Amino acid sequence: MSNTLPNASQVTDLRSAIELLKQYEGEYIETNEPVDPEAELSGVYRYVGAGGTVMRPTRTGPAMVFNKVKGFDNVRVLIGLLASRERVARMFGVEKEKLGFLLKDSVNKAIAPVVIPREKAVCQEVVHLASDPAFDLRTLLPAPKNTPEDAGPYFTLGMAYAADPETGEHDVTIHRLCVQSRDEISMYFVPGRHLDQFRIKAEKAGKALPITISIGVDPAIEIGACFEPPTTPLGFDELSIAGGLRGRAVELVEGVSVGARAIANAEIVIEGELVPNYRVREDQNTNTGKAMPEFPGYTGEAKLEVPVIKVKAVTHRRNPILQTCIGPSDEHTNMAGIPTEASILQLVERALPGLVRNVHCPSPGTGKYVAVLQVGKRGPQDEGRHRQAALLAFAAFSELKHVFLVDEDVDLFDLSDVIWAMTTRYQGDVDTVFIPGVRCHPLDPSQDPAFSPSIRDHGITCKTIYDCTVPYKLKENFQRSQFMEVDVERFIPGFRK
Ligand code: MN
Fold this sequence. Notes:
single chain, alpha+beta, nine-stranded antiparallel β-sheet, binds manganese (II) ion
């Protein structure tokens, strides 16, 4: 890769990622002030660096480590590692505008994970077995509550990894995991998720599904895990995307207590089994009716019946770092949005080579619901093909709701410039394309029959294309004012454009 920055290639785990960030101004901060994991920790970070769809005021800021967590010895908590696109770009060694392309290429050169011997796996330096009567998840790991009304403590950045009980193919995904008792964790699945399909297969056979939750890993794994079909169909092990991105296989280790593999250099691994025909109410311990803050910026409702992981063991590195995130923060946008960009780029490039210059799934669009496509119409024949590209974007990612089309002279990473294009290159009656009645995503509260009579079921939406491009024939009339090219450094030494 031509524009690789020094050191990103040396990131192999969470600790090396943190060391890389420490070299930069404003990317990393830590505190020794004791913090309560129950709502206080997220309350602090909301102001420091959450960004995204979090309630205002918030901002983009550094990743933050809390060295002292009340009630927990020797476990630090990291929040916001990926909550800045610039920071993600630094950890991956590319410019932030190129992240979608890097991820697309990583899917195409995926490298399958490998299993290494136990004695080499740092995630098993310390082992706690649930069969020990003193074992209690609630005192072992400082899972945060993000707000005071959350259903309970949540693991928000666990890489859940399991195998299809019929084919043996693996899948990794991030799910909301609520600590329910000394050895039980509830696991919420949006319908259709691959791990849930594995769980249903096991349950139908009357069997438990062995699973591991790896927390605190190379951020390439965290972003790779967020790919969804059709880019990564059922049976596609998303860990191989991180392998492709880093150019080396992710290393796994067999669990100490269950027949499942974990990420060998994770900070913390929870091992357990999804129990067949057993459900709990997500807020059974608190009765708040709420789950936790979800990525659209609203707190999800506690579910009445969620599957349960019976925990068999927790293993960890010495002095582990528990990594967490605020659901609606910019961290989510990057984890969901960059794979979405990659998925769209892959499909439009295959169908309409050279037309789409870049794709951005911006923060206020949650990473999943909005995409801005920058197109370069090369001649009159490309007029209308740009709208075909928008239709392909919906096909590339089913949860997409709004597509904005802009020309090549618009900075798609600057939403002010996108709104400028919408102001001067868009007429509502001819440039808005409605595609009503399409199944989308359940967590957008406007996708509900109560919101619009056109919506037949919760989770159905009117997908919309906002065509903010100039008709090809009129391009000459839409030249932006052209300034003289100058050497600003002559006037301000060190000035960077
Ligand atoms: Mn999958």
